[in-house]
Amino acid sequence: MSEPPIKRVLVVVPFAMSADNLLLRQAQLQGLSFGDGLRFEYRAVRAGPLNYSSHHDFVLADAANFEAGCRAQEEGFDAVCIDTMSDSGVAALRSVLDIPVFGPGKTSMLAALMLGDRFSILTMASRWKPLYKKALDELGLHHKCASVRAIEVTPDNQNLLSGKEEDVFPLLEAAGRRAIEEDGAEVLILGSTTMHQSHAWLSARLPVPVINPGPLSYKIAESMLALGLAHSAVGYPRPMHPRLDLLQTMLRAGEQSLKDHP
């Protein structure tokens, strides 16, 4: 009896980066078990914003992530995960792909409500708060979000928390305790996939569940593939006049511009 084909999941990384820095993103798979039938492949965007700290950045992020994954189905992938809590590009990708597409932002918030009544988000900087507000607005869950606690440390989307553990981890732990004791949080969510290196530290020291958003989105994708489920074609209708070639031309030009003017 022949083995079933391996299912491939594309993980779209929302920043252009080196192969070495991409490995730090792939480290989110450590400690997770998927068996031999599922393979995750990471792809950085061609070009995009340097950070996600304004609505200017959000527009560029949607386009960059959408372009990186818009032909995933043609390329033989079985699912797509977007590696950012902003869920940038998720809705657009769902409008052109039949395979399931997930981002960690809304997924984390909905999962938190299976573990407790109210959640707080631990984040690096207050400038990221509009990302969470957008998701909470769309889900109608502001009343379930106890707080967003920022430690006001400059994010590093390339090296993540590497080399900063001794400074950052205790700050996140302290913010988590305040969220629990002062704000009434029953579940905590890491506010970025760039913070995944802090998950084990925080989980061992805080008395409530701590959601690591990237790995959660991978497990949700695995479950949906096993169940044969994907997003609604009614909720995410196909475009009447697709312009994927136009989008890819724009991003290739942006990639070349960054090479010419780094």
Task: Describe the protein's architecture and organization.
The structure is a single chain. Strand 5, helix 5 (129-139) and strand 6 form a beta-alpha-beta unit. The protein has helices at residues 19-26, 55-69, 90-94, 104-112, 129-139, 165-181, 199-205, 213-227, 244-260; strands at residues 7-13, 38-44, 79-82, 101-102, 119-123, 145-150, 187-190, 210-211. The strands form 2 sheets. It has a 4-stranded parallel beta sheet, with helices on both faces. The model has no long low-confidence stretch (mean pLDDT 93). By secondary structure, the protein is of the alpha/beta class. The longest helix has 17 residues, at 165-181. The termini are far apart. It is globular, with a radius of gyration of 18 Å.
Short synopsis of the structure:
The chain is an alpha/beta fold.
Q: Characteristics of this structure?
A:
alpha/beta; 4-stranded parallel β-sheet; 9 helices; 8 strands; globular
Task: List the topology elements.
Layout: E1 7-13, H1 19-26, E2 38-44, H2 55-69, E3 79-82, H3 90-94, E4 101-102, H4 104-112, E5 119-123, H5 129-139, E6 145-150, H6 165-181, E7 187-190, H7 199-205, E8 210-211, H8 213-227, H9 244-260
Parallel strand pairs: 1-2, 1-3, 3-4, 5-6, 5-7, 7-8
Order the strands across the largest sheet as they lie in space.
Answer: 2-1-3-4
The overall pLDDT average reads 93
Q: Measured on Cα atoms, how large is the radius of gyration?
A: 18 Å
Contiguous low-pLDDT stretches (5 residues minimum) are none
Q: Helical stretch count?
A: 9
Write down the overall geometry.
globular
Strand content: 5-15%
* Termini Cα gap: 53 Å
How many β strands by DSSP?
8
What string, H for helix and E for strand, traces the elements in order?
Answer: EHEHEHEHEHEHEHEHH
Helical percentage: 25-40%
